[in-house]
Each structure stands twice: as C-alpha cells, then as structure tokens.
C-alpha cells in the first residue's frame, strides 16, 4: 500500500527508483548493489572504486601471499630433476599441472597437483595451499563442487586469508546450495579485497537476496498481523481525497428519507456494522474495524460494498494481502456499486500488485480505474507514484499534471511532480534542468507552505546537491508541521551523519522517531545499519529483527533479512578470521 506521506520510501521497497542516491549510499554504508533486496553494508568509499575482475579460472604459478618458489607456468622439467629438493619436485609437478590445465586436460592436471601435494614438505604452508587451490580450480572445471569445496578448505586452513580459495569455495557452496556458508566466504572476500571487486560483491548481493526471499516467505506466511500506528493509518488515508470510506461519518451515507429523521438514522447506525466501523475509525479504535465490517458483509447490509472496501483496506494495512484481494475483487466486479468505490478498490489492488512486484497487473488496474472514473484525481496521483517506481518519469509527470488539473490545490501532487522532474534531471546529469527542478520546489513550498511533503521531498533533493544546511532547515519545517511524523526524524538523523558525521546526533533523532512511533520499521532498519557501521553487530541484528517483525510486506521483509544476514555473516567472519571492515 503506497502511503502518500512516504512516496519515496514506498519506492525503496521496489528498487531504488524513489530513493535518492545519497540516501542509499549512506543508509547502507557502502557499495550499492541495486535491486529489491540486499545492498551490501560496508566499505563506504569502495563503491566509487569498485572494479570488475576477470573470472578467476586460471591456476596459480606461485603461492599467494608470500614469495614461494616458482619455475614459471608450463616450464619443462629441466635436467637434474632427480637431484631437486622435495619442494622443487613439488613445484615441477605443479608446473606440469598448469600446462595440462591451460590445455583443458583437467584430469591430468588434477593428477599433477595431487603429486605436488604429496611431494610438498608439510611445513611449506603457502606452497601447499597453492597446490590445493590449483587442484580445486581443475575440479571446478569438471563441476565437481564437493571436491572444490574440500580442497579450498584445505587451502584456507593452511593460509587463512587466501582470497582465491575463499572465493572459489564461495562459488562451490553456491552450486551446492549452501547459502549460509557461501555468504560467510564471500563476506570474508569482500572485506579482504576492500570491496574493490565487482564479482565478489555481486555474488554477495545475489546470495543475500536469495536468503532474504527464502526466510521472508516462511516468516510472512506465519506472521502475526499487526496494526500500524494511528499516525501511519491517518497518513495513508490522507493520500486519498475521492475515498468514500475515509470521509467523515454519515457524510453522503444517509438515504434521503433518513435525513429528516435523526432517530431512524441512529437506529440504522445501531444495526449497521459498517457505520459502527466508521464510528470506530473516527475514534481511532482501529482494531475493531475488520470485525464490524465483517458483520455488515455477512448481513448483506445496505453498505456491503463500502464494508468490503473498508475491510480490504485494513487487511492491507495489517499486511494481509491474501485476505484483502478477494474483497477488492468483489468490489471491483460490482457493476452497480458507486464508481468511486470501484476505482478506489482498483487503486488499492494496483498498489498491492506493485508491492508484490507484479507491475503488469498493477498497471492494468490503474488503467482500468482511469477508464471507469476518469475524473478521479486519486487515480492519477497514485498511478504517478507507480510510474516513478517503474522509472517512467515522463508518464509520472503527465499523471501528476492530470491530478493537478482535476484538483488544483493538491499540494501533494505538485510536490511529487517536482520530485519526478528533479529525478529526471539528476539522472540525466543536466545542470540546467536540475536548477529548474529546484526552483520548482521553491515555488511549491511558497504556494503550499502547510504541505510537509513538499519540504521533505525538497530536503532530499537538496541533500543530493550537497546543500546540507538548507536540507536540515526543510526537515525542521516538516517537523513543525507534523511533529508526530517519525519518518522525518529518521531522514533528519541520516542527514546529520552525511553532513557532519555526527553519529550521536543521528542516533538521538532516530531514537526520537521510535519514541514517537514504536512501530516505525524504517527507524529500526536505519538504526541497524548505523550500528553495523559502528561495529556493534549484535545490536544491529537486534534492530533488524525488530524491523522484520514490523515489515508491511514480504518484499520489505526479504530486504531486511538480507541486511540482518549480512550483519550476521560479518560477526561469523570476525570470529573466524579476525577480520573487521572499517567502522565509523
């Protein structure tokens, strides 16, 4: 469910479309590996210098690190072979193995490397580790993954920081579907290589995403539905203006004959589960809404369509999309129902599909909503957000324009249009259009000084442009307008880190966000990433787990599990190899 108060965050679930680059780089503390799932957590400066590497397929001529004797790959055994030292004979066997390897004769190469291993004096750790690693490389060519893993393990036991062996073992574990072991090895490789090798970082990202998806699928299926905070719910409903179910009680809900007979109206209220649900909504007693709506639906009451839509909306809010869908389907198929209800149901189902990473179905629902209710500004506002997620910026701007045409006072649509134009200019690296977009933000906040979202989106653009002081002022304006919006405190906290590297101030603001809304998963996630940066891995894992329990979709949950697994892998690597990436 896309809430208007968090358009940018909503985008964070489906990729990086709505998150500004600085935010990702900062929150995740390092190399940015794009996608809906994991983004690796360390090596803050390394993203800029990350270099690709050719596949590590060749065997080694000498032990690494350390000198280690080598007669050169593929050299013939010279005369006097018999008088050579045991190490010399082992090296000669290895060299012959390298010749076979390069010729694609892997079985013979394996025999030579085996001979090198048996000839090598046991105290020559580095040489011996190279022979095992070379034999693993030959096994890899034959796709004998168990043997690859075993030989790499021997190599690593002899030379614990042996990057080639660790990475080859990581790839073997991937083939054997040992995700946890693969992650540990590739984490060690990333740290040893100072995050400069794209290949190992991509494998880390891939395995983290797979682990995240696997765990989230299981957890989400068995999760306890959880009502979000009242602030989140109100902010969600504020993103709709043509939404009958969120209008004040009884507005447009009394039939003509009831209007003059208040007694009868109150009687209807007594008997109508839907009207009781609306009363509870006004009182912010949200836990009773689903059960009251169900009574109206079971009684096939006068407000059945409204009750189905209200129940579906709260199912979505508690993260139970599978229960919401049949209710939304039913409302959408009710030809005789109020078209505003059907359009609203299509917007909500479309947003649900987008969260489930089904953009084609999502687009179909939004297009159908526009067909059946072309004057409904909400359709264009929410479809515009969808288009931003899909990186279809021009279409997003068209939708926001249509929303503004239908509802000229929609500050939200104007602010989001500015953000879309800014993103387009920023990704196109066009200084003039960036300037024009920034001026657009100035116009919006002048015209709509009470729209917190305008200041929040402007603050993100300002941060992108390194105008930290002004961004900070914009967040303060947001806080003045919406003192109970936890998300703003998180963004302001992140800004302190990027601007002044002020960890204490950053954490203080994020703690304030949790104090305001202890169900703010974004705050726990951010705190977790900061604790990773500080090297407090146990604390980080605790924060990620809190965020996981609050996640509103399986996709968000998968992303959080990826972060948690990355932190956990780092603790294991620290224990095993005494390795730690630099901390703040």
From TrEMBL:
It is a single-pass membrane protein. Belongs to the Tom70 family. Residues 66-77 have a biased composition (Gly residues). Pfam families: TPR_1, TPR_8. It is found in: Mitochondrion outer membrane. One of its GO terms (biological process) is protein insertion into mitochondrial inner membrane. The chain crosses the membrane at residues 22-42. Keywords: Acetylation, Isopeptide bond, Membrane, Methylation, Mitochondrion, Mitochondrion outer membrane, Phosphoprotein, Repeat, TPR repeat, Transmembrane, Transmembrane helix, Ubl conjugation. It comes from Atrichornis clamosus. TPR repeats lie at residues 90-123, 343-376, 377-410, 452-485, 521-554. Residues 50-86 are annotated as: Disordered. PANTHER family: MITOCHONDRIAL IMPORT RECEPTOR SUBUNIT TOM70. This is Mitochondrial import receptor subunit TOM70. The gene is Tomm70. GO terms for cellular component: mitochondrial outer membrane. The keyword Protein biosynthesis does not apply. InterPro entries: TPR-like_helical_dom_sf, TPR_rpt. GO terms for molecular function: mitochondrion targeting sequence binding; protein transmembrane transporter activity. The keyword Manganese does not apply. Coiled coil: none annotated.
